[in-house]
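fold-stage: in
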Amino acid sequence: MKMTARGSIAALLTCMAVAGAATPALADGVPVGVPLEGVEATTGLDVPHIATAVPLPVVGAPEAPRMHKGDMLPTPLLPSVPIAAELGETLVTSPLPNLAGRPETDGEGSVESPSTTVRTRTPGAVLGSPLTMPDGSNSGLPNLTAPKLGLLTPEITGAPEALLGVGLPR
């Protein structure tokens, strides 16, 4: 079987379309339900229902090192890397029997944490060279200086919160 140029292009476009359709959409987190049914079946007690999402961290571009006049090494030498993750919504519900001391007042308690974005930045390092730039008064040789070392602190920012609720039967 002989393949023409038009047939080759059609096959390539078909493969690209199939690969694009098979790629899952980028998600903020992977939903997870904590399976506690076995505990309920074994103990005979009502267990809480827990649903949450495992965050998928997204790594950003590291800060580009910059050269400064008079320095032999770039600053920062070890750049910090930003990482962001969406903490997914978490819901924990549990049956609350006899809230007011009577079986007809059975209810449900819940703790809910809405989704929030958490941003972090890895630590970085700044290193000063133990040599100066070449010195004309010293026959063009660099002078010795005390080496300098600095650490860039890691950062974490976000605003996680939780909501507590009790539901009574109506």
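fold-stage: in (second)
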Amino acid sequence: MKKEIHIFFTALMFFTRIPCPKWVNHDPDYLRLSAKYFSLVGSIVGSIGAIVFYGFSLIFSVEIALLLSMFSTVYATGAFHEDGFADVCDGFGGGWTKDKILLIMKDSRLGTYGTIGLLLLLSIKFAALRETELYYIPLIIISGHSVSRFIATTLIYTHPYVRDTDDSKAKPAAKSIHSSTLLISGILGIIPLFLFKNPWIFLTLIPMYLSKMWLGGKFKKWIGGQTGDCAGAVQQLSEVIFYLSTIALWKYIW
């Protein structure tokens, strides 16, 4: 049990800025095992966003509450996944060979493709949440963060890690994982969906996974696999796809 707690806090420390016990560090062995808790970390981050939204919605407009909620989740994670999404936009937008793409993604500077990609991504995320029924927004936020991290975990499971350098801090977390790890991540990832008390919500998993397959196909074609940035991009895209899918469900099926 103590080991599992250590592994969980390792995941929480790696993917967020949330304070963790001093005895937790970025031990590569624990970090490699922490993938099982990625979805749970997502639920925690999503809960922060949901609480911020609910609290500020009692004072300000829905729009302001949503922006503050989005800010809180970005701050809580240090824009970890958003940075990965931007790096992928820059790398695949400006690179035409595997080496060039990986080199651009490793560059800490934000380029044109990354800037435009982030602006569009965050705009769609805000617009989709604004169109969601007010009563469900907190649960939608929690579920979106949780399930999207499970989808990102499936990329690590299906695609090999391709960076050939050892200086990437994300390497232990982005390397291959076992089926049992994926199963645990999946269970923890979909738990929030049961709170909707409507089985139709599980249909959102289909377009989310299709978005992962689409991105995964591009990653495989151009660089032969995935990196930590690629997993971050999958998380961000699938989160937005979840929000859009719930809107479609309410409009045509729910």
